[in-house]
Amino acid sequence: MHRKRLKKIVCMVLTVAMIGTTFVAVPAFAEDIQEGQNTSEAQTENNSAVAGSGSAEAETPDKASVSSAETQSRAPLKLSAKPVTSDAAQNMPGQFAVKFTGTWMDPAQQKKLTDAGWTLTYELKDQNDKVLTKVADIADFVYKIQGSETKYKLVCTAEKQGETAQVFESALLGAYRFLSAPTGVSVKCPKSDNNVTIKWKKVSGASGYLIYRTTSKSGIPAKQTKTVSSGKTTSYVDKNRSGKKTYYYYVRAIYKGSSNGSSYQTASEPSARKSVTVNWYLTCSVRTIKWYTTTKTSAKLYTSKTGGKSKGTLKKGTYVRVTDKYPRKLLNWDVPKRIYVKQLKDGKSGKVIRKGWVRWKDCKTVKGDVPYSKKLDKNNDWTKKVKEKWVNKKKYGSKTRYLIWISQYTQHVTIFKGRKGHWKVYKSFRCCSGKFQQPTPKSKSFTIHKHKMKRTRLTKHGNPYYYTHLSFFTGGDSFHTICWYEGTRRVLKGMSNSGQPNTRGCVRLDEKYAVWIYKHIPNGTKVISY
User: Fold this and answer.
1) Some GO term, biological process aspect, for this entry: which one (predicted)?
2) Most CB atoms closer than 10 Å: which of 50, 206, 377, 479?
């Protein structure tokens, strides 16, 4: 009997001891909190007394009624998150800057706790109370969210000599959805041009895609090259790539949704890197020349080519495309009175935002957008394959075994040899075609119809000059040599083969090429001017 009673007494003592150990942390933590509050209040009273204003003594709450939950904050605690948008983190999808609003105690109270020996620990937990990571700096915390279904909360605990108390726990932060990385990515550059086509498999739930392009193997660049706004689109053509370079491409899937009362956008991990080498020289498909100029003073924008009604002005230095002139037919060294211009949204590209007629004298010299460069002379023409494919696809024919193409955009003349549908490049050389005031006519049906050995003209100052070996393809326009002062071999200034459109309609060539056409191209040969 005595043994049974003794066992009961021991059990009761142990139980009481365990209960005391379990709950000792909360009153001790609350006491330190209250002490910090009392210290803060006493400091306030002292300051008020020094200022000469009396105040009632603050009531001290019962320590037993103070808990960590009751002393934790002066405003509701809320956890929030938003995607990291800095350039440094663009290539790390799933990263969110985790923030929380509201305060749980004054800095003075927090200092009092740490001075009292309490260690504060911040942790990010999921909805199952699993610790995801410890938070070192709650003021600037970035966390890479791991899953689409996980919810998050921020928990602060205090520890002192083996005693632990929970200071606060925020409400759960809703989940954010992340998509899987695109697969089946392929990049190709067809031999007909230098446009790179990127294709990938559709990602379920995608709102769009991000396309990245770089010339470095070091990794995905900070900024995307293109944003595809439709989740149904699974391809993109990257145009205007410069030649003889290797490009690397990545694709990421975008998801747009809403969570925690606000909209957000997430991006998947990048796809596997794909590369392609561009070997073509020019930065666009086959096309003709376009004209441009800039205003040299504030220029009125007229509604018609002859009227005085205007619809605004163009500022000095405004870049404009030029598409027409008045009058259209000009003789010798004449210039138009007005030109029709279009102002583009993005300067040299984009949507037309303004158009109308301006005076010729209000603009600088109208130039063609040719890709000529002295350093890259050999690389500023269409490739052999592009030329052959273009003329054969157009099914151009000729009465002779030759075909001539004047490319006004690249300022090159190409001689083909063969027959309709089977033309092969035979020769190609640089030229100068007509300037804007008197451009070389565009046609697909010109023919070489006569030859002339020499022609003499006068400059606008009355000085005679000449050129030789004329091969006419229109009534007055021909292939011919560069120009010399009469009776000499001194080249007339501005009349050499510069690779820029500056003639009065003819096509100026280096002497050896003009001589070759003069001697070898028979009458009836088709000439394409484009």
Assistant:
1) peptidoglycan biosynthetic process
2) 479
In Å, what is the CA distance from 324 to each residue of 73, 341, 360, 436?
A: 73, 8, 11, 9
HSE-up (13 A, CA, CB side) for residue 338: 17
Report angle CA 336, 342, 346 to the nearest 5 degrees: 140
**Domains of the chain with bracketed CATH:** 78-169 (2.60.40), 186-278 (2.60.40.10), 291-368 (2.30.30.40), 381-529 (2.40.440.10)
State the Cα–Cα distance between residues 333 and 330, nearest whole angstrom: 8
Neighbours of 13 (CB within 10 A): 10
CA distance 355 to 246: 40
Q: Is 403 left (phi over 0), alpha (psi -120 to 50) or beta?
A: beta
Residues 6+ apart with CB under 8 A from 168: 68, 69, 72, 73, 77, 104, 155, 156
Cβ–Cβ under 8 Å, residues 430 and 497: yes
Q: How far apart are CA 318 and CA 510, in angstroms?
A: 36
Indicate the DSSP class of residue 170: P
> Which residues are identified as catalytic?
480, 506
Residue 518 to residue 468: CA distance in whole angstroms: 10
Q: Taking the CB of residue 48, how many other CB atoms lie within 10 A of it?
A: 12
Tokens standing for residue 384: 């052999």
Query: How far apart, in whole angstroms, are the C-alpha atoms of residue 398 and residue 206?
Result: 53
Q: pLDDT in tens for each of the 530 residues of the chain?
A: 455 554 444 344 333 333 332 233 344 555 555 554 454 444 444 433 333 333 333 233 333 323 443 344 344 456 666 665 544 334 455 666 666 666 555 667 777 778 888 888 888 888 888 888 888 766 667 776 666 667 888 888 888 888 888 777 777 777 777 788 899 999 988 755 567 889 999 999 898 999 999 988 888 887 888 889 898 999 998 875 655 678 999 999 988 877 766 777 778 888 999 988 876 555 456 778 889 999 999 999 999 999 999 999 999 999 999 999 999 888 877 889 999 999 987 777 778 899 999 999 999 999 988 875 444 345 578 878 788 888 988 899 999 999 999 999 889 999 999 999 999 999 999 999 999 999 999 988 899 998 999 999 998 888 999 999 999 998 889 999 999 999 999 999 888 888 889 999 999 999 999 999 999 999 999 999 98
- CA distance readout (Å), 368 to 165, 275, 455, 483: 78, 34, 27, 22
Q: How would you write 400-467 as a 3-class SS string?
A: CCEEEEEECCCCEEEEEECCCCCCEEEEEEECECECCCCCCCCEEEEECCEEEEEEEEECCCCCEEEE
For 262, phi and psi rounded to 5 degrees? -145, 155
Please report which helix (H) or strand (E) contains residue 380, including its range: none
Which among 503, 507, 504, 499 is positioned nearest to 529, based on CA atoms? Answer: 507
Q: HSE of 145 in the Cβ direction (CA atoms, 13 Å)? A: 29
The amino acid sitting at 339 is I
pTM above 0.85, yes or no: no
